[in-house]
Amino acid sequence: MTPAEPNGQRTFTRSPESRAFEAFWRSLRNETLVPAREDFHPGKARNLISDLVLVEARDSSAVSQRIRVTGGRFDELIGYDIRGCNPADFLPRAYRAGVIESTRLMFEMPCGVWQITPAHLVHGYATHLEMTMLPLGPDKAGSHFLLVHVRSVGDLMRAYLPTPNGLGLDTSTTFEFLDVGAGVPEWTAQAA
User: Fold this and answer.
1) Longest C-alpha distance within the chain, in Å?
2) pTM to 2 decimals?
3) Is the pLDDT of residue 189 over 70?
4) How distant, in Å, are the alpha carbons of 129, 135, 175 from that of 110?
5) What whole-number distance in Å separates Cα of residue 156 and Cα of residue 154?
């Protein structure tokens, strides 16, 4: 992914890695629109596993979420173990409702999301994260899951903003829903 800078604005295009992740996710589907949680096995994602994050939501409302698994390259990048955390806690309060709503839409439509998000890392750096999120069907307990591919794009920059949760995210600078076969929601990201 190469950032472009028309009129001084930094814009990004979707990377080949993001598209490879979506192709992998699509390969997990049997005859259903969304693969089930049990269809995802880390061994099937050897080339992607270092950049994957698995997020669990107790139900499709997505109000209660927690990070279950993080990949090694992602862990090294942020320098902090975020397993067990709620992803919304890394954002300012003003943006949390948008995250919950976009996640709910991913489960209920279903669809995916591709976005670029500024991130402040615990070791005094900032970067842009390319995140590609796709839903997994509920497990036997009724929990829903997001399989997320996360990678740093652009350069690391020195930043001295506090990261009380180990990671600080800003609202996405680029955001789009991905059609996985059911269309995309008619929703304006209020601060996803």
Assistant:
1) 51
2) 0.87
3) no
4) 23, 7, 16
5) 7
